[in-house]
Write a structure and sequence with these properties.
Bound molecules: heme C
Mean pLDDT: 89
Number of strands: 25
CATH topology of the largest domain: Neuraminidase
Shape: globular
Number of helices: 7
Number of domains: 3
Largest sheet: 5 strands, antiparallel
Strand content: 25-35%
Low-confidence stretches: 1-47
Length: 498
């Protein structure tokens, strides 16, 4: 209370106190009001006193501007950096300052975690400003968009869906759509059929759980298998309501889900009562294996524990058997399907069409969304290392971004774009997009195109933005690029116009 700044008091109280300054009664009244007011204010103030925005406004705004648009010196909103556009260099600039230019060293005044938080906060503020002023394509149905390499038309394929989370194409031209509620819907000759497939698994549609993924087997034309991943509910030994990601396969016959087999179901004692971070994507590598992801289920420390299924990428044979050459098959008590670990919430998986390598995207906390190149047995670091910070502005665990024995992301997005489904473009309708990685963003409402050379991202383009949360992207068998969107709930495709 000692440091409580008088200027934050309502001016009427200050004026009252000043005008009756010499009256002892008024002093007592003032003290009571002050106690009452500060008590209230601190109860209402959710942010701690040293929240990053407070620190910025106290220490930085005089020179860099209240909104980072510039004050006594340059602001940050132009996103050009004399020290170099790199989180570590910006942190260094804050830590050591620049005496020649008049930038003060904040190394002592701010903790390392606060400096990292400041970098995230600066990045977030720039992003918000760009979103407001940026000149992004915001297409509507039928509209032509001129992107960097191709002109395309934005074409509505299906509406009338409720929270579509995944789509798949069957060789006979039908499309399947997984809705969060558990409904598996069919689009036939461009029409969304009214009735969902009957008899698909019961899903726990709560929070981020539901029917998450639908993928036909690569040999669907001959074997008819369709794979589904979903949040499977149950009750554990204590009788608590719990859930975990599970995978089944089955066939569709006369509008019914039949021949169901369990491909992956974790032991019930690993199920959790949380309703977030399920993952989940399934990809086939075409060599007899399927990969899938499970998020940390909101128990971040579990991601480092290889005896548990959550916070991992898994690999199985297509019938659910565990491959004998999986990295932890011989490790005592390890979960044998684990392929890699230290993942937070991976909602994007794709196999590179040329190299066959497995690429993954995962949601970071506040900042630190990642694009990773997955290799067997490796530790991707969550929650020990991460480029994001906690939602309350505090560091995650030790606040490290790198550590021996833990993998770095190929790139990270800070601030978060809320990265979701990904796919490499393999069609021939957009020749200049061949093997580019398309990346969806939920919160950022954007479709990104990444040009990848070897293991590096050479270029990024925001293809369009602000037309809804983008959940998934996929190649159609017709060579068009399909996009699943939430709010509005629809599937659109991009068709070239040249
Ligand atoms: C007394 C004025 C002053 C204050 C206070 C101040 N800065 Fe600076 N800052 C400067 C000047 C001047 C520069 C150099 C501008 C240039 O590079 O031309 C600078 C540079 C920087 C840079 C590098 C910019 C670039 O383009 O590379 C960063 C980052 C930065 N400041 C962050 C902060 C943060 C964060 C705070 C608060 C914790 C802060 N500054 C407080 C004056 C100030």
């Amino acid at each position: 209370m000692k440091s409580f700044p008088v200027r934050r008091l309502p001016s009427c109280i200050v004026h009252l106190a000043i005008s009756l300054e010499r009256s002892a009664v008024a002093c007592a009244l003032f003290a009571i009001l002050l106690v009452g007011f500060t008590h209230n204010a601190s109860a209402q103030r959710k942010q701690p006193e040293r929240s990053i925005p407070n620190l910025y406004s106290n220490f930085c705004s005089a020179c860099h501007g209240i909104n980072m648009g510039g004050g006594q010196t340059e602001g940050f909103l132009d996103d050009t950096w004399n020290v170099g556009n790199d989180d570590a260099k910006i942190a260094e600039a804050i830590r050591v300052g620049n005496t020649n230019k008049g930038m003060i060293a904040f190394g002592g005044a701010l903790s390392e975690a606060e400096i990292r938080g400041m970098v995230v906060y600066i990045r977030e503020t720039i992003q918000k400003a760009k979103n407001q002023t940026g000149n992004f394509a915001k297409p509507v149905d039928g509209e032509v968009v001129a992107s960097q390499d191709h002109k395309f038309r934005f074409k509505m394929v299906a509406s009338g869906l409720t929270m579509p989370w995944s789509m798949a194409f069957l060789p006979d031209g039908r499309m399947l759509v997984a809705e969060r509620s558990g409904s598996l819907r069919v689009i036939e000759q461009g029409k969304l059929l009214t009735n969902a497939i009957v008899g698909t698994p019961q899903v726990r549609a709560q929070g981020q759980g539901g029917l998450m993924e639908v993928v036909p087997h690569p040999g669907f034309a001959t074997n008819g298998w369709i794979y589904l991943s979903f949040s499977d509910g149950g009750s554990n030994a204590m009788g608590a309501d719990v859930s975990m990601t599970a995978i089944v396969r089955g066939r569709i016959r006369d509008g019914k889900w039949v021949d169901e087999q369990t491909i992956f179901r974790a032991p019930i004692d690993t199920y959790l009562s949380t309703s977030h971070h399920f993952g989940n994507r399934i990809v086939f590598d075409g060599l007899g294996y399927l990969f899938f992801s499970i998020g940390d289920r909101g128990q971040m420390e579990n991601a480092q524990d290889i005896t548990l299924p959550n916070g991992k990428i898994h690999r199985l044979h297509e019938d659910g058997r565990i491959p004998v050459d999986n990295p932890f098959v011989k490790t005592n008590r390890a979960f044998a399907s684990i392929w890699s670990f230290g993942q937070r919430n991976p909602q994007g998986l794709a196999i590179h069409p040329v190299t066959g390598e497995l690429w993954e995207t995962e949601h970071g906390p506040r900042g630190g969304d990642e694009l990773n190149l997955i290799r067997p047995g490796l530790n991707f670091g969550w929650p020990v290392i991460c480029y994001g910070i906690n939602y309350n502005g505090l560091p995650i665990t030790e606040g490290l971004t790198a550590k021996e024995g833990m993998e770095q992301p190929v790139i990270h997005w800070t601030p978060s774009i809320a990265v979701c489904g990904i796919d490499f473009y393999t069609g021939s309708r957009f020749p200049k997009w061949k093997t580019n990685l398309f990346v969806t963003g939920l919160a950022s409402q954007e479709l990104r195109r990444l040009v990848i050379e070897g293991h590096a991202v050479k270029h990024q383009e925001i293809v369009f933005k602000n037309v809804g949360r983008i959940r998934d992207v996929a190649n159609g068998p017709d060579g068009y690029l399909y996009v699943v969107m939430n709010g509005p709930d629809q599937i659109v495709r991009l068709e070239p116009t040249e």
